[in-house]
Amino acid sequence: MFDLKFELKNLGLNLTSFANEVQLSPNTVSRWARGEVQIPKWVKPFIINYKKS
Fold this sequence. Notes:
Elements: H1 4-10, H2 15-21, H3 26-34, H4 43-52
């Protein structure tokens, strides 16, 4: 399972800063983190690539 909050914390980001980075509403990212809405498939590769940069 992909833990969005954990992954973002490891990058030094919070939900709001990540939302701003990907130009989405903080509410959208928060719903992903709470499991209310499925996290889109592009998010995990984005975070992996973000770690590399």
